[in-house]
Write a structure and sequence with these properties.
By secondary structure, this protein is of the alpha+beta class. Helices cover about 20% and strands about 35% of the residues. The chain has two domains: about 5-310, Neuraminidase (6 Propeller), CATH 2.120.10; about 320-485, Potassium Channel Kv1.1, Chain A (2-Layer Sandwich). Keywords: Kelch repeat, Repeat.
């Protein structure tokens, strides 16, 4: 196969009309196989919309969320840590703000970050932030004055602290870029209120020392509001404002400290500043911005690796095809009677479930019956079990998870039991902890039982005041005694 020369190109997208509307001064982060965009300014209003682009499916979508989203804003920062997307500070149209809000991808919930120690940075906008190890580091910005303070938020301790650093500390600025390379972060450019900047500073996370980086080669002009990203051992800078919008593209080799303008085929994206970007899968991804007269919503990528020409292989349809066999009488060779209604199946279920294998191939009466009665299971739950056995996949709703767990336990489907337990644990809270503990005990869900006990003991005063705890005590007082003994 031939190689494709490196060039800029639109990100392949199957629903371009669903992309976020034109904007600048927004924030983004890449996580797993998705690119997330939050907020910004569309020329008339600041927004708090939240979008996901999934690179595998090549689709834009609005991120589903419960809870109170951050207020509309621009000039904020966004970072990802573990399974959450965080938004910090910015400008809401009337004032600078310094709130700190988390979106949890697992629970699909927005919530304010609970800070257990330390004081946050002053309300500001146009700052820069990165994640290193278990902390977010936030530099500079504008709080009424141009700043060069440096702050750390430790996600595991939920604590803010000033970074006590030495060395050649960068001068105050806003709209600079900050990227992580190995055990260091690299600060480039910005604006100090009087001039665009082109200096480069390196902060060592281990020694807590700032140093000035002396470079060689043709460097980019002083600028702010650009995008920077790290790939391999180099930092890449695209666009920004030098007083006017630019579209130049530079590489800084972080081993030789040498700048060079990037060479590529074709044309770069249009000139812009106040855009966003992130590195994903050997590509620099860029979205939106302002070209000096209009806001943009184009979605561009530059691949650092030369690609091999290849065919676009369609996604597998196997799971959807197998799902069509669930309760389908076409070629059905076994019929279950559940709540008096037929549920059609196929004896291939024998290889997925030892219970059905014994039932349909052994000496049980059912092996010779044309119709097999199923008792003690509701029909919708039995069909869910069947769907899982056919496809090895099931979206389990919380309200049926315990009932489905009991059915999976009865039929010996261990992985489905774990899926149900995981879904129930996601919903665990003070209001339902006692009922989950009670149900887990009733259905011998050992892992779920222990997790709920741990939660109840850690939140004992709140849980014991709930209706669920009172009901558990009336139904099985032994469970209350067990909790009291383990306190």
């Amino acid at each position: 196969m031939q190689s494709a020369a490196r060039s800029w190109a639109p990100v392949p997208c199957n629903n371009p009309s669903a992309a976020p509307r034109h904007r600048s001064l927004h924030a983004c982060a890449a996580c797993n196989d998705s690119f997330y965009v939050f907020g910004g300014y569309d020329g008339s209003n600041r927004t708090n919309d939240f979008y996901e682009f999934n690179f595998k499916r090549k689709l834009w979508s609005v991120v589903l969320a419960i809870g109170s989203a951050p207020s509309p804003r621009d000039r904020h920062v966004a970072v990802v840590y573990k399974n959450s997307f965080f938004v910090f500070a910015g400008f809401d149209g009337s004032s600078r703000i310094n709130d700190f809000v988390e979106y949890n991808f697992a629970t699909q919930r927005w919530s304010n970050v609970v800070v257990s120690a330390g004081l946050p940075p002053t309300a500001r906008h146009s700052h820069a932030a990165v994640v290193y190890d278990e902390s977010m580091y936030c530099f500079g910005g504008y709080d009424g004055n141009y700043r060069n303070d440096f702050h750390e938020f430790n996600f595991e301790l939920n604590a803010w602290s000033p970074v006590l650093s030495t060395g050649l500390i960068p001068r105050p600025r806003y709209r600079s870029s900050l990227v992580v390379h190995n055990n260091q972060c690299v600060l480039f450019g910005g604006h100090d209120g009087s001039h665009h900047l082109d200096d480069i500073h390196v902060f060592d996370f281990d020694t807590r020392v700032w140093s000035w980086l002396t470079t060689e080669g043709p460097a980019p002009a002083a600028r702010d509001s650009h995008v920077a990203g790290v790939y391999s051992n180099a930092m890449y800078v695209f666009g920004g404002s030098t007083g006017t919008a630019v579209s130049d593209f530079y590489e800084l080799d972080l081993e030789s400290n040498t700048w060079r303008p990037m060479q590529f085929n074709g044309q770069p994206p249009a000139q812009r500043f106040c855009h966003v970007g992130a590195v994903y899968d050997s590509s620099l991804i860029v979205f939106g911005g302002y070209d000096g007269s209009r806001r943009l919503n184009d979605f561009q990528q530059f691949r650092f690796k030369e690609e091999q020409f290849q065919l676009d292989i369609p996604e597998s349809t196997l799971i959807n095809d197998l799902r069509l066999l669930v309760n389908n009488d076409i070629m059905s060779d076994v019929t279950f009677i559940v709540e008096g209604i037929p549920v059609y199946g196929h004896k291939i279920l024998c290889i997925r479930c030892s219970y059905f294998n014994a039932m349909l191939t052994g000496e049980m009466l059912e092996s010779r019956a044309r119709e097999i009665p199923i008792t003690e299971v509701r029909r919708p739950i039995f069909i869910m079990l069947m769907e899982y056995l056919y496809t090895d996949h099931l979206d389990v709703a919380v309200d049926v998870a315990m009932e489905l767990f009991a059915t999976a336990d009865r039929y010996g489907v261990e992985r489905l039991k774990r899926i149900c337990e995981s879904k129930i644990l996601e919903s665990l809270c003070t209001k339902n902890a006692a009922s989950i503990f009670h149900a887990a005990d009733l259905h011998n869900a050992t892992l779920l039982r222990e997790q709920s006990i741990t939660f109840i003991l850690n939140n004992f005063d709140a849980v014991t005041k709930t209706d669920a705890f009172e009901e558990m005590g009336r139904t099985n007082i032994e469970l209350v005694f067990e909790l009291l003994k383990r306190r």
